[in-house]
Amino acid sequence: MRTLVNSLHDEVALGLREQIFSGALPPGSFLDEAALCERLSISRTPLREALKVLVAEGLLRHEPRRGCFVAEVTERDLDEIFPVIALLEGCAARGATCRAGDADVAALEVLHLRLQQCAAEGRITDYYTVNHAIHEAFITLADNRWLAQAIGDLRKILRLARLQQLHAPGRLQQSLAEHLAVFDALKRGDGAGAESAMRTHLLHQREALREVARNHQSRLNP
């Protein structure tokens, strides 16, 4: 019975997580336990276990006597998260550089060629997809499960903000140049250079997001 409950609450957590990331449950939304139980045809026990998982991940916040709400990411959160994830992904880039073999470099070459093509054609959605694959490849190559877990946890929080940093003027080409700098360092076996370039890349993302926010605000308040 315990295995069944665990399996069910994991399934419920996965479904709610996907709704949060898709925007179906936007930041600040209240999760009505009774309505969810009825809609999902489950009891309170697996639902509450799922909610505990999402609270632990930072995707929900629990308020005593009120219940759970979808977490909201503030500008302060972003200011605090980006330096941390920059350090972590920089560490991953160094580890990947130390472990990359010829086949790994060849696979990364293909990804970077795709990235260049997406940038040249202005296909931002496809660029995001390839960009994610490149970051994942570096993390996988680093082969450090604790590092991967820490990065994954922070990425979940960042996804709440539904960030669109590539819409900042000139950011697409800047991002591409930063990726190529990381890859160039890896090909040269320069772990420190790859780490520094990756950290710069992540910190520049934060600066681009500030610009996007400023531009959005200026349109709202001309």
TrEMBL record:
Q: Which UniProt keywords apply?
A: DNA-binding, Transcription, Transcription regulation
Quick check: keyword Transcription regulation in the entry? Answer: yes
> Known PANTHER family for this protein?
TRANSCRIPTIONAL REGULATOR, GNTR FAMILY, TRANSCRIPTIONAL REGULATORY PROTEIN
Database matches in PROSITE patterns: HTH_GNTR
Question: What organism does this protein naturally occur in?
Answer: Acidovorax delafieldii 2AN
According to UniProt, the name of this protein is Transcriptional regulator, GntR family
Write down the Pfam families for this protein, in alphabetical order. FCD, GntR
Question: What molecular function does GO assign, one term?
Answer: DNA binding
HTH gntR-type domain segment(s): 6-73
Query: Where on the tree of life does the source sit, at the highest rank?
Result: Bacteria
Look up keyword Transcription and say if it applies: yes
InterPro entries hit by this protein: GntR_C (IPR011711), TF_FadR/GntR_C (IPR008920), Tscrpt_reg_HTH_GntR (IPR000524), WH-like_DNA-bd_sf (IPR036388), WH_DNA-bd_sf (IPR036390)
